What does this fold into?
Amino acid sequence: MRYSAFRIFKEGLTGNKGWKAVWREPEPKPEYDIVIIGGGGHGLATAYYLAKEFGHRNVAVLEKGWLGSGNIGRNTTIIRSNYLLPGNEPFYEMSMKLWENLEQDTNYNSMVSQRSILNLFHTDGQRDAFVRRANAMFLAGADAELADAAALRRELPFLDFDNARFPIKGGLFQRRGGTARHDAVAWGYARGADSRGVDIIQNCEVTGFDIQNGKCLGVETNRGAIKAKKVAVCVAGSSSRVMATAGMRLPIESHVLQAFVTEGLKPVLPGVITFGAGHFYVSQSDKGGLVFGGDIDGYNTYAQRGNLPVVEDVAEGGMAIMPMIGRARLLRSWGGVMDMSMDGSPFIDKTHIDGLYFNGGWCYGGFKATPASGYCYAHLLAKDEPHPTATQMRLDRFRSGNIIDEKGVGNQPNLH
Ligand SMILES: Cc1cc2nc3c(=O)[nH]c(=O)nc-3n(C[C@H](O)[C@H](O)[C@H](O)COP(=O)(O)OP(=O)(O)OC[C@H]3O[C@@H](n4cnc5c(N)ncnc54)[C@H](O)[C@@H]3O)c2cc1C
It folds into this structure.
């Protein structure tokens, strides 16, 4: 069924009786060509591009809970491609281009809103670093725009420009950045994959792998064994736990990241704004809530809730750049388990076990990567070679020294 204005009109006139379920609820088959573990954004996008771009339809996505129950439905919805390093920037710009056409491509309203992202800077040194970043963005075909404090005062007069500790000296805009409705992204990909024959199986937890003589032949699940020619792991915060059942130890730690939303307010924020002297990022949802977040809690955990010190730290960041936020009432907060890699960058790679593939280590930047991650992972699964924009996202990069240390802060997950 194609969604269109005409369809809404027709259904409105006929009692809305013609709408179909957005995806089927199939029983797992005993065997597939490709089994994808994890029905988050990345797993579903992989299934979608496998079916649409690479013609693989005998595919299953196994999700232990329900679609959208993981980080895809918990993030602060920011999309952007304002990276610096060659291993990252072209990949995130590819993702940005896929975002720009996502709704037409999937025929699903994912509420992609290119309302801009602004990274504030507070020192001259930080400005120079942002100029360098802007040039790297131009080289990868992205857009970037430097604004001084006077220009920002005209556009965003509510910011605390003369803050005694962190005066705002300007900012780097990416006007094509913005937000997308996170769970609708999962639903759109699920619908697109399902309509091309992919089986999306919810409440199906993978508990182990069938590995014989160095080859992965399938998976064990709480709904029985399923054979597969290729098994693609894509479980974000559960990466270490799932890969441990295949005997692999990853350069990944699991940490909790919190997010917050206020009561609905009249439109006040035109786009996404990030604080440059601490960790705070904020946007306004279409319902009017200010959606914001900050740093990870900083200890290893699989809990989907965090603690008060980070709440305080995030609130301090917000108050430093826009004191008016102190008058908004907080409605909800929640957490998600992040697969923090040691250099802050992800993996899309084969493992040393034949037929077993791994996608993870997205830290807290994986939402914006969803389309490109799905596309590149599908490419790897279909052709057995990395997509040209994801060649550095390898599992052996810590051994070879080719790390992608975007922030240049070293090999500790809590620094990224
Ligand atoms: C609070 C918060 C804010 C964030 N903000 C942003 C942001 O603004 N911008 C951005 O780019 N990124 C952001 N992120 C990061 C982003 O959400 C994640 O990097 C990304 O969603 C991870 O990929 P995913 O969607 O596939 O993960 P998930 O949705 O977590 O998918 C993994 C799935 O695997 C399933 N699974 C796990 N184990 C098994 C198993 N054994 N068998 C079967 N299924 C299994 C899980 O149930 C889950 O559904 C944020 C994350 C959080 C938590």
Notes: The pocket of flavin-adenine dinucleotide is lined by residues 37-43, 62-65, 69-72, 74-78, 205-206, 234-238, 242, 257-259, 293, 336, 362, 364-368 (CB under 6 Å).
